[in-house]
């Protein structure tokens, strides 16, 4: 509803004006009344009416003078003059001051109603025009701030824009804050507009700077303030956005820069934080300096350089023999490499998927029941690609390998040495090494070698050779050629196979095969 003020020295006229038309029908209500021009001017400044109905002739300050004074004070209200005088001079002055209507007494209620309606429509038109102008200026500022942040303005253009749009950008230092929203909310743009209002409210409350949009992200070009950046406004913003709608919000605070021309540097660091947010776990406020310090320290931890073939070999053995500590250590090393090299989300997921695929394919080949312990590949892929950070992905893969390992373990012998022998029995054709087995079982290789000798009566290599030669004797009964048998039992060099075969069988494999055919 709009406000109307009645100014007339005659009480009867004021009372009559209150009821002569249905003000509510025209979206007005009487907000006050004044007895003369001076009182009227005071009420205008106090009540801020949208429309003033005023008489001309009044004791003291007359209606024309009151209108003139209110215009001088930049009052934006509309005026309808009621007068018992039809002199041209009054009408001329009224026109000069932009009065909306000049009506003669006695008042014609239809004519007054018509003018009030016109004033209402004019006020609404003014409001719409003002709103459009404000939005237009705001959008222009938005684009200028975005161009400044993206490095598309030189200093000359920055100076021109600051002067043209009254931008206060002379600060001690600057930082760019990017706000990323992940939501499938169907409300679309309406929700986005609400979110912008929430961000603007916080920015205004803490005097941070300017809100803008770039791509799918909201941004804040902020005055750097060490005390405030310790999170209070960002925590409050995060809480406000999360309470508004079911939405995943990440706030990235870029590097502090001293010069206005270096603002794009701050933007790039904030963008890099968002691009690699997958590495930073469930954290929702990412500050450039803090993140870099933390992950720089992480890089210096005992992360071994990743060798994927060796990793797969060790991980497979650890799963096969159900050594959960080794499974975790190996996967932690894998995760540490991804973090230290700042890999992107897509590459990390592909690599985890490859590791899972290589391990499970080997299990299917080496274990008759291996496939019984695996869940469908598509289901695993869906789980991997649904994870929002590397910690959740890592935990899922670790738990999945531990589950598989546990089920494998339940199906065979239980002592450590029996597990090793069982493993050799099923993998004699692989490039088995005592050191690798010792690492997986967390033993010193020399100590494991002595344990092995005590348990089997043979050194590890002798035991492995004997198993391989026994398997070779079985295979030589078939149609395979000697070099094919050599490869099948784990000897890539046929000459070496011959020497080992003679050592354990007392003859060459070719002679052994010929004797079998007689």
Overview of the molecule:
It is a single chain. With 518 residues, the protein is of the alpha/beta class. The strands form 2 sheets. It has a 5-stranded parallel beta sheet. It has a 5-stranded mixed beta sheet with strand order 7-8-6-9-10, sandwiched between helices. Helix 3 links the parallel strand 3 and strand 4. About 1% of the residues have low confidence.
The number of distinct helices, counting runs of at least 4 residues, comes to 22
Shape: rod-shaped
Structural class by sheet pairing and helices? alpha/beta
Gyration radius, to the nearest Å?
Answer: 42 Å
- Report the count of strand segments: 10
Lateral strand order in the biggest sheet? 2-1-3-4-5
- Sequence stretches where pLDDT stays below 50 over 5 or more residues: 299-303
Helical amount: 55-70%
- Arithmetic mean pLDDT: 84
Per DSSP, what share of the residues sits in E-state strands of 2 or more residues?
5-15%
Relevant terms:
five-stranded mixed β-sheet; 518 residues; 11% strand; five-stranded parallel β-sheet; 10 strands; 22 helices; alpha/beta
Helices, strands, pairings?
Layout: E1 2-7, H1 11-20, E2 28-34, H2 37-47, E3 51-55, H3 63-72, E4 78-83, H4 88-96, E5 101-104, H5 109-149, H6 155-164, E6 174-182, H7 189-206, E7 209-214, E8 217-223, H8 232-244, E9 248-253, H9 263-275, E10 285-287, H10 288-299, H11 308-320, H12 324-340, H13 345-366, H14 377-386, H15 390-409, H16 416-427, H17 434-440, H18 445-456, H19 460-476, H20 482-488, H21 494-505, H22 509-517
Parallel strand pairs: 1-2, 1-3, 3-4, 4-5, 9-10
Antiparallel strand pairs: 6-8, 6-9, 7-8
